[in-house]
Amino acid sequence: MSFDDNLDRLARLCVGFGLQVKPGQELLITADIGAADLVRRITREAYGAGASNVQVFFADDAITLARFTHGSEDAIETAPGWLFEAMAGAMRNGSARLAIAGGTPGLLAEQDPGKVARANAAQSVAAKPFMEVVTSGLTNWNIVPFVTEGWAKQVYPDLPVAEAVETLWGHVFRALRLDHDDPVAAWQTVFDTLAKRREYLTERAFSALHFEGGGTDLTLGLAKGHVWAGGGLRLADGTGYAPNLPTEEVFTMPDRGRAEGRAVFTKPAVINGTIVEGLVVEFAGGKAVKITADKGEAVAQTYFTSDEGASRLGEVALVPESSPIARSDVLYFNTLFDENAACHIAFGNSYSMNLAPGADREAAGANESTIHMDCMIGGPELSVTGIASDGNRHPIMEKGEFVI
Amino acid sequence: MSFDDNLDRLARLCVGFGLQVKPGQELLITADIGAADLVRRITREAYGAGASNVQVFFADDAITLARFTHGSEDAIETAPGWLFEAMAGAMRNGSARLAIAGGTPGLLAEQDPGKVARANAAQSVAAKPFMEVVTSGLTNWNIVPFVTEGWAKQVYPDLPVAEAVETLWGHVFRALRLDHDDPVAAWQTVFDTLAKRREYLTERAFSALHFEGGGTDLTLGLAKGHVWAGGGLRLADGTGYAPNLPTEEVFTMPDRGRAEGRAVFTKPAVINGTIVEGLVVEFAGGKAVKITADKGEAVAQTYFTSDEGASRLGEVALVPESSPIARSDVLYFNTLFDENAACHIAFGNSYSMNLAPGADREAAGANESTIHMDCMIGGPELSVTGIASDGNRHPIMEKGEFVI
């Protein structure tokens, strides 16, 4: 299979399976300028599927950096709320939304952490209406990867850049099941497994989960009436879609007031361009009360206290160590991959899809925030135990693998 | 001077003289993806000048084409009105606006002219709120060129592409006075000359202009209370700016009801990607009553009848044959250059800046339309005569040169 063939297959998988673009539907795409080749193929695919308009918003590393290297304090704290609001409006009117993930992970590593934190906070506040529509289940959305040079250099700093790009694409194509004769059929099998796990866990309705191993000892209350999700989603009109490709996780909503103990994060988190390594967080009463990190500590501390909900949890997700991404044993510096290599918890806003439709978020224990940041706690030492409301303990994962 | 130096000088000219970005002002940039190098330099320059946010909207030939090659009829007639409205809103709130001109002129030449016309009409309607803000004098705006491969190939089809790009850049840098030690001082001299012409012509308050030569014999009534513009403009708060770089024209508003005779257009017009050549238009009562062309006739006929005002005139502009762009004797297939090589008239909407502030457009004879398309009638044979309200005739240009 040539590289071009694989990109075409990725475009077809994205439009036909990931997004399931409907005739007459508009599609909004955000992508790095380096991903233009894939964006062009996806655009043709989407028009072929009947899209009424494909609107692409290209970002560029040098333009992003210029705000920090040449911008005033005013510029650091400014974000285009009007544009996020306009995109949110388009989605409320039915537009689908695609993000191409693959920007340079450490882009802002050399910049002043205080500036980065203030810029991130401004960006999060401005993007809130947009993120609310994305996570509300109103419209079909999808994230797929594209290997940019900036990303590949971060993953393989010691390889020549062309080789780094090629090697990383190899992993990406395999993680996307594009090495299968019929990638959609392969994904249907994955989605069937995820459906079994989420149905089992939803039915059990555990009161809490206990994570233990590799330094982590964390008891996490689950929201009242929580629903486990993972794999495919479905709009009110019956349209199915697959938000993340690749995806290996089942996930639900924690209770914002019940997290106790210590989480040792096993992979770096990329917080809007800054790589945070060696993160350790202690929780009490649902809140992160102590945040330390070997690298990027200031960025993490500021980010996780940027609003009241940013220090509490909005998601918990289970991923086995046998997932193809975990087995590749690559540190991707990209949430779309690293979150599918390991169990994780997310700081910030929780997803309404993890409650029954129309449920009272406040009463259920949902967390509210302008941020949502996945942080990996999974590893080969981790066990996960479900704690029922009667106090009984049920093993869910042992040594990183499902036992249900 | 290296190419990089020239691009940096262009970025400085654009931000410091063309736009005169104010501290705290947002800047919206539209550009072809091929112009990213210049956009990056301009972004750094604008942040350096105190811009609060630089928001870039990149277009891409392949993405534009995909609508025609892969899109449904629905897609042909869809344009993102919500995005134009959002950008118009940002400008009403004070954002400056920069267009980088340099897309591929004949991009849509191979496409079905009916489809192209319907797509153009949908685009014009959707863009109207945006164009209204641009032409209302509410905010500072600027257009500068960037030589893309697609543009250079159109101008020099027989040269190897790298040589075509280099040759065209040479003309562009000279037209922009970047070969002068102090390009801003050079532009100030040009603007002084334009100011003298526009002041003379405004003071004379001619009732009509008579264009004659090279097959053209056209008498064009001027709007009541018309004002000649050209060179620099000034916002209500006193900020000066230079909308077009390069620019060599003085221009004013015709009376929508008074154009009689025949215009033979001396350069091709690029109508949203289709090149129209050999255009001849006969006017009666201000209206184009017969439109013929050697190439692109259907696109021109449809475009110039896309609404009531599209067949009437919104601008008349005078440019001497001795302008550096005319002297380069290159057909640029790009309005920003070709309009500055020759006298021209524009079909469609007229500019309020060509009347006194607050004047009644309707009563003055202003034309209203969703389109505004410059078409060149100038040439070495053309004479222009001013006709005063008492019927007296005053020579303005002879054999393509000013005699005032």
Automatic annotation (TrEMBL), chains A, B:
Pfam family, one: Peptidase_M29
Transmembrane segments: none
Keywords: Aminopeptidase, Hydrolase, Metal-binding, Metalloprotease, Protease
SUPFAM superfamilies (UniProt xref): Thermophilic metalloprotease-like (SSF144052)
Coiled coil: none
GO terms, biological process: proteolysis
Cofactor(s) recorded in Swiss-Prot or TrEMBL: Zn(2+); Mg(2+); Co(2+)
Matching InterPro entries: M29_Exopeptidase, M29_N-terminal, Peptidase_M29
Family: Belongs to the peptidase M29 family.
Protein name as it appears in the record: Aminopeptidase
